[in-house]
Amino acid sequence: MSAPTAEVMHTVAGGVAYLTLNRPEALNAITPAQRDVLIGLLGDASADPAIRAVVLTGTGRGFCAGADLRGGGASTGAERVAGDVARMIRLGAQRLIAAVLDCEKPVIAAVNGTAAGLGAHLALACDLVLAAESARFIEVFVRRGLVPDGGGAYLLPRLVGPQRAKELMFFGDALTAPEAERLGLVNRVVPDGELEKTAREWAERLATGPTRALALTKQLVNASLDSDRTTAFAAEATAQEINMTTEDAQEGVASFVERRSPEYRGR
């Protein structure tokens, strides 16, 4: 089980795990240590039957300003060996994004401010994205002469199409929260003072839902754009077969027949 730190806060309430990046002085630019803690906490939430939804947010004016390039992720003094950079990305940024995509609980991003580079991709990997009116999304890599990493070239075209994704990545212009909502990157924009409340309401609603059905639905949707119709239909049928063995599925059918509200237990 992963231990939270002062820089990655972790609380649980009402079946919801709240994960908060807490380096406001750096706009929550994420260090390797924070990244590893966050990956561990997402894995814990995925495996814990008592956790039924996750909220990811930040403190201060930033959601996450990307990877902390000042944090010494790769030593400039050490001799570089071919494959070092690819290995660092694979075991670092890509592993973090995969932890969000593979988490078996729905993950809500509550974007409280700037989400740049890896921070933008961290938000976009989440299942639902709420944004404060002051939030901004920036594909900042081109400004640093870098190729987008952390799954950006995988995530963005699936959300906005290849032409728009290339525009965002080629120019690196900041998107306001309303612009991001218009493009389909954000589910809903709310006033800054209502972000925490709205995220909590959404998460608590998910936490009372059929947890295994939600997990299987997430898996199907995430895989759909990588699959042909035959594969997708087969996966859907298999998922429903698995889901029908759960207590929540039986409860859902019974409550419909009995004309009452279902009481899902996440089992």
Looking at how many chains there are and whether they match, the oligomeric state comes to single chain
Nearest-angstrom radius of gyration? 19 Å
CATH H-level name of the largest domain... which superfamily? 2-enoyl-CoA Hydratase, Chain A, domain 1
How is the CATH topology of the largest domain named? Answer: 2-enoyl-CoA Hydratase, Chain A, domain 1
N- to C-terminal separation? 21 Å
Q: What is the number of independent domains?
A: 2
Strands across the major sheet, in which order? 1-2-3-5-7-10
Q: Approximately what portion of the residues adopt beta-strand conformation? A: 15-25%
* Mean of residue pLDDT values: 93
Q: Assign a percent range to the helix content.
A: 40-55%
CATH class of the largest domain: Alpha Beta
Summing up helix and strand content along with how strands pair, one would put the structural category as alpha/beta
Spans of at least 5 consecutive residues whose pLDDT stays below 50 are none
Shape: globular
Which CATH architecture of the largest domain?
Alpha-Beta Complex
Structural overview:
The protein has 267 residues and is an alpha/beta fold. The protein folds into two domains: 8-207, 2-enoyl-CoA Hydratase, Chain A, domain 1 (Alpha-Beta Complex), CATH 3.90.226.10; 211-257, Orthogonal Bundle (Lyase 2-enoyl-coa Hydratase, Chain  A, domain 2). 45% of the residues lie in helices and 16% in strands. The protein has a six-stranded mixed sheet, sandwiched between helices. The chain has a four-stranded mixed sheet with strand order 4-6-8-9. Strand 1 and strand 2 (16-21) form a beta hairpin. Helix 9 (211-224) runs antiparallel to helix 10. The model has no long low-confidence stretch (mean pLDDT 93).
